[in-house]
Structure formats: structure tokens, C-alpha cells
Design goal:
three-stranded antiparallel β-sheet; 11 helices; seven-stranded mixed β-sheet; disordered N terminus
Length: 304
């Protein structure tokens, strides 16, 4: 039976042998919550600030959110539109921790919701398809997603979706002063992403915007250097055509939505953040080289 423990500053915590945990000491006050055998609670190690932050670490709450969001979104993904998935056959080789999915971004929410559907379907043994969404009865919840703080606070609906596992970060490039802009990713944001990776999968969008071929942000490369995760590049397409910018309202029916999971990247973790970021952007097909391959660069103007 899993147990719970609350640790104070400078105390050492010993994990139960045989469950893949080892002793460690932390100088900060930690709150450690471990699974009951039924899986009701997710391990967390964080100084939690708000009630909503606590809720999204409770597995049963996340499962309920998955069911609600999943039932609401399934028709738009798999019935009204056509979802084409590839690359999930490699998921069986992945560990259940320290895996970072890096993707291009086309809508605020439809992209992430689709990933969650796919992960849940794979948990139930499906490959490259969703099928009937009975996987929502026991969804895969060991995954978090990085999102902008202001985006997740806009409405009650976005606040509800945040309970599915949002790691909210402040957009440093929208900071008011030059000094703030130079800081890059907030250190607190970096720590929460690193903590999530310790025991989960994490989805991130290095461009931080839905604009195609926007430059990537160095924060993602910095996290990769620090945590050395398995990095899975993902390339999505069609979502901008089928949904509005938020990804919550259908714009066009009968659209093919494609999600391609590529093989894990071979990354030199000692390389510079610029080099790692360049590798990521090329892998998700958002680099300048990929932009130059676009149709608008090779189509000729009609002769008048």
C-alpha cells in the first residue's frame, strides 16, 4: 500500500525499496503525495500555491476532466473530421517518465486535446487510431502540457481544462521591460516542468504561438539540457483549417487532421542551447529550411 508523507526543510525522505525510488534530501519544504493502490493520487513534489494547483495533481479529478473534455471533443476529431495518426507503435518502448513531446502548434487547445486522446487510446492497445472512445473509462493521465498562464485563465472552460495537467508558464517574450525579456524562461517555470518530467510525460510547444514558422524559444532547449529527457518530435497539420484559433469551435468539416510522432531524437545534451533548439525546430519541420520548402516558394506566378 502506498503511503503519504509531508516533509519539512532539511529532512531526508526514503522511498519504499523495490518501487523504483531512492533516498534523497531536499532543502525546501516538500509535499509528497503517493498513489493509493487504486491510483487516486499522483506523486507531486512542489510548493503548491492555489487550490486549483492541488486539484490538477489529484488523479481522480484529472480523470473526470479527461472524460468531460474527451466526450466533448471526440466528434470534432474523429467523426466530423478525419484524424490520421502515425508513429504510436514506438510508444511501447518509452519509459513512463522523463519523456518530452515537442510539437508545432496550430490551435490553443485542439492540439493538446488530440494528444491526450491518442495517449489514452495507446494505453488501451490501439495503434495509430482512436476507434470508439471507451479508453476514456480509464484514461492515461501521466502526462502534463506546457501552456501560457494568461491563456489558461481566460474563462471557466480554460480553467477546467487546466485541471487536465497544465503547466502554466509566463511568456517571457511578452515581458514589459528589456531586463525581463533577457531573463528568458522564468526559473520557477523551468523547475515545475523539470519536476513534472521526473515521473511523467510532458508536451511542449517551443514556438509558444500558433503562427507557422515562428522562431522557437530557448527555454525548451534549456530544459532538455538540464533534464536530459527522451525527446519525441511531433508534426501536426490540418488543425488550423478545421478549428478556430482557440481550437474549441469548428471552422471547416471533413478536414484531415494529421499527427505524426517521429522517432526519438539523438541529442547531444552538452551542445549549446542554440544547437539543440535548431535541431528541435528542424525535427518539427518549423525551421527556415522547412519554410523555404513551402509551396509559396516554388509556385510560379501565372503568366498574364
Amino acid at each position: 500500500m502506498w503511503s503519504a508523507a509531508i516533509l519539512s526543510e532539511k529532512k531526508t525522505f526514503y522511498h519504499t525499496p523495490g518501487f523504483g525510488f531512492t533516498p534523497y534530501t531536499n532543502s525546501q519544504t516538500l509535499v509528497q503525495m503517493f498513489y493509493f493502490r487504486s491510483g487516486c493520487f499522483r506523486q507531486i513534489s512542489t510548493n503548491m500555491g492555489s487550490f486549483s494547483d492541488r486539484l490538477k495533481h489529484i488523479n481522480i479529478v484529472r480523470k473526470l476532466v479527461y472524460i468531460l473534455v474527451g466526450l466533448f471533443s471526440y466528434p470534432g476529431l474523429a467523426i466530423i473530421n478525419r484524424l490520421k495518426i502515425s508513429g504510436t507503435e514506438n510508444f511501447s518502448k518509452l519509459p513512463n517518465r522523463n519523456v518530452l513531446f515537442v510539437s508545432n502548434h496550430q490551435t490553443y487547445f485542439a492540439d493538446v486535446i488530440t494528444f491526450l486522446h491518442i495517449f489514452c487510446a495507446v494505453k488501451w492497445g490501439k495503434k495509430n487510431r482512436l476507434g470508439i472512445p471507451y479508453y476514456l473509462l480509464n484514461p492515461f493521465t501521466r502526462v502534463y502540457f506546457v501552456s501560457a498562464e494568461e491563456t489558461m485563465k481566460k474563462s471557466w472552460l480554460t480553467k477546467l481544462f487546466a485541471l487536465a495537467g497544465a503547466l502554466t508558464v509566463k511568456r517571457a517574450w511578452l515581458a514589459k521591460t528589456d531586463a525581463e525579456k533577457r531573463k528568458g524562461l522564468n526559473p520557477g517555470d523551468t523547475r515545475q516542468i523539470a519536476r513534472a518530467l521526473e515521473n511523467n510525460w510532458v508536451i511542449t510547444f517551443p514556438q509558444g504561438t500558433t503562427k507557422a514558422f515562428a522562431p522557437g524559444r530557448k527555454g525548451t532547449a534549456l530544459i532538455i539540457k538540464q533534464t536530459k529527457p527522451i525527446v519525441i518530435p511531433v508534426v501536426i497539420n490540418g488543425f488550423w483549417r478545421a478549428f478556430d484559433k482557440k481550437g474549441l469551435r469548428l471552422k471547416k468539416k471533413g478536414t484531415t487532421l494529421s499527427v505524426r510522432f517521429k522517432a526519438p531524437l539523438q541529442i547531444d545534451y552538452e551542445a549549446s542551447t542554440d544547437a539543440i533548439l535548431a535541431q528541435l525546430m528542424d525535427a518539427i519541420e518549423q525551421s527556415k529550411e522547412w519554410m523555404m520548402k513551402g509551396a509559396h516558394h516554388w509556385k510560379t506566378e501565372p503568366i498574364s
